[in-house]
Amino acid sequence: MKAGFHNGVVPDLPVRTSDEPLAPEAYRYIATHAWWMGTFYDEEGDCHAHLSEHLLQQWTPAAQDADWLLDRVVTGRVTWLAGSAERAADSGFDLADHWPVGRFRAPFGDFYADLNETAPRRPSGDWATPTPAFVALLPRDPAALRARLEEDAPPGRTYTGPFRSAVDALRSCMLPADLRAALYAALLQLPEVAFVDEVKDLDGNLCHALVHDLGPTRTELLVDPVDGQYAGERDTLRRASPCGLVEGTVIAETSVRTAVVPSIGAPPGF
């Protein structure tokens, strides 16, 4: 462990959390390797579902009102889960139509403001867009944090709830070590969440996982075993879907690595 890190241990779990110092002018570099699902319906109403590969690099500033930078690539690699590439292509499907690609730079991380012909907007601060002010006000006691999660996103809803809200915030990779530790402990108080010591991400890296096994998908929240940082996700269908996908189909998967870099656009040390 590097000197100067803030270290902690998630209560009752073999998960360590630590932060590399982030100077006011520095950036957090976030590399995401993803396979995400998309669907396309042809003229006959048949569903064609596919996974496409994405490579994202993001530079998030310590000073949130400074410029952020996102480099987004769709590699062109596709795996078809339902339907076929040939029939989808005959009906006009083009992968390039589904995802914005290129290099985007904007304050507050509002990367697509130019595409929408709007001015970049400062986020108000919530679980999906955790500003420093929002983060500072969150409790560090796991029981109080669970109560806050359940107040903001009541359990029992299909696509929202306390687990999803926590994952949204962790995905920013900007939560401090003490809050990450409290979040993991809070999530493991939920009856539908279990801890798995060793799983592999899509790139073969060993991670811890907090597994949410309820609703239409089984979601694995991946955690770096070295510093307790968010390390990706995996969503697997718990039951067959109307699009013809069978139970056990992986419909989304990411592997995430982070580093502190001195300036926007600077390469990481890994």
Automatic annotation (TrEMBL):
Q: Where on the tree of life does the source sit, at the highest rank?
A: Bacteria
For this entry, the protein name equals: Uncharacterized protein
